[in-house]
């Protein structure tokens, strides 16, 4: 997998506004901001699992708890725009898991499309939050989900929370890849590993964000195709790439890996 070139980070004061350049078309601006943020933060933000100390900039953020008792980050200084730009300019201060990484990318895309003034209206001191389930300004539209590889997807409407059968069955990687062609850029796609050894590990489920045709941001793996992601998930962490038994890996993918969730997001 080719490595993305890293840009040199600079401070916000007198530095680079990586999200500058609001375009006339909101969707194009959103997708451009999404890609710029993905390329900027991939390989620079550290991966943090459930047992990893959280990394963040304490100048802007403090920790708190959501209503479920889970730790969240809450803005306590500055504006939402300044805090998000600081993530882009100082990414090495940050440690995020795969879903938090996606949420930060979505913030960046919104900022690029909305502009600073409108983005700052999303929240403020003590009300702008990065949370696993209720991040400020981020909304879902439609969620496809299933429990097992052979199951059909159910479709859940974000407004009504009503679940209905979708009739969509994706039991092979070829079927998954064909369906993914119709999934909009900016959607979340979550692959799952059903092998018993993967249960309750940080990589049992891998949340990704689609940023282009067959291009997905998967933290900490980087920007990859769907098949490249499957191969990463099927390769043991301590195994050298040159020692991989491709036939064994492909068999593991067929037996254990599948798309468990696909979520369409609102862009504003």
UniProtKB/TrEMBL annotation:
Q: Which GO terms describe its molecular function?
A: protein-glutamine gamma-glutamyltransferase activity
High-level lineage: Bacteria, Pseudomonadati, Myxococcota, Myxococcia, Myxococcales
Q: Which InterPro entries match?
A: Gln_gamma-glutamylTfrase_bac
Protein name, as recorded:
Uncharacterized protein
Listed GO biological process terms? sporulation resulting in formation of a cellular spore
Q: Which Pfam families match?
A: TGL (PF20085)
Tell me what organism the protein belongs to: Corallococcus coralloides (Myxococcus coralloides)
Give UniProt keywords alphabetically: Sporulation, Transferase
